[in-house]
């Protein structure tokens, strides 16, 4: 009986250690800002957002790839960043 008691105690200590690690703040993705294009950041992007709002979410300005139309005109304007 005592032979298995030591193994049981070690198993309990390991499980408690694992449970303590899983509650650390670094693993909570909603509370931790991760810059770049992640699924969580993509879900925050909405049609009609300003360039600065998108930069604030993604954490980077990106690089302008191409533009279509004239910026700040009455017509349509599109810009593609990578």
From TrEMBL:
Residues 1-22 form the signal peptide. It comes from the Bacteria. It comes from Peribacillus deserti. This is Lipoprotein SmpA/OmlA domain-containing protein. Keywords: Signal. InterPro entries: BamE-like. PROSITE patterns: PROKAR_LIPOPROTEIN.
């Amino acid at each position: 009986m005592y032979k298995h008691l030591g193994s049981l105690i070690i198993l309990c200590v390991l499980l408690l250690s694992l449970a303590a690690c899983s509650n650390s703040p670094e693993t909570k993705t909603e509370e931790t800002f991760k810059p770049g294009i992640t699924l969580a950041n993509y879900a925050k992007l909405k049609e009609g957002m300003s360039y600065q709002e998108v930069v604030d979410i993604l954490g980077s300005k990106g690089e302008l790839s191409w533009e279509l139309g004239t910026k700040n005109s009455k017509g349509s304007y599109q810009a593609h960043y990578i």
